[in-house]
Amino acid sequence: MSKTKILIAGSVIFAVTLVAVIFVPNPVGSFVISEAKANGYLEYSPEEAVTLARKICTQCHSDERIKLYCPRCGPPFVAVVPHMQVFIKNFKASRPNIHFENITEHQAVAIVQVWNALVGNWEKDFREKDVLKLIGHFDLLATLLKTPVEERRIEYALSKRDDLKIGHMSGLADSQKDLGKPENNPQPGDKPMDTLKGQKDGPHDHTGHDMGDMKHDMH
After folding, report:
1. What angle do CA 20, 23, 28 make, to 5 degrees?
2. In which element (H, E) is residue 66 found?
3. In which residue ranges is the amino acid composition biased (Basic and acidic residues) (predicted)?
4. C-alpha span between 170 and 179 (Å, rounded)
5. Long-range contacts formed by 95-101: CB under 8 A, 24+ apart
6. How far is CA 203 from CA 192, 193, 199, 208, 215, in A?
7. Which of 58, 107, 137, 193 is most buried, by CB atoms within 10 Å?
8. Domain parsing of the chain, residue ranges
């Protein structure tokens, strides 16, 4: 058999094996796909990203703690997750006997989008340069910060899933979510004139009628 035929036959066998590994359900195929997504060769679907975020983050935090994280607790998730990456890496080095799954940067990008959508995104409440400083050398997360939410495939899709949201403001109407913003808080003296007039005229009219009734009763 010529070298060309051997090369072609080998390529066909390799291709068939690769297809079987990836597309036929089996442990090897699942591992290959998982690694491909973790390293950015394949994308996570929004649902897969939710599963990933819960699996990774509950290694250290309870669901309740994640649920209660808010702007008063600390910076946005895009600045928090990279520090979790460093923490897990150092923890694994100091406690080699304890199994802990680390986070690749591609996974971090997916995880940030999940919690932004399900808990809250307050990136705009912080100065960009401050957030970038917290992100440090994680270039993919820095790119994510500068990407509009509408262009973040996972976050944008999950932001429409009210059934999955767990943040402290989940379930509230938009008008209620905005009450904490200074521009939306009613200030003293902001009552409409019609309301003030109603308060001024109403009691006098009722009082007059009441007094007349009392006089009539006395007679």
Report:
1. 70
2. helix 63-68
3. 191-219
4. 14
5. 100/59, 101/55, 101/56, 101/59
6. 18, 16, 7, 9, 18
7. 107
8. 1-41, 43-172
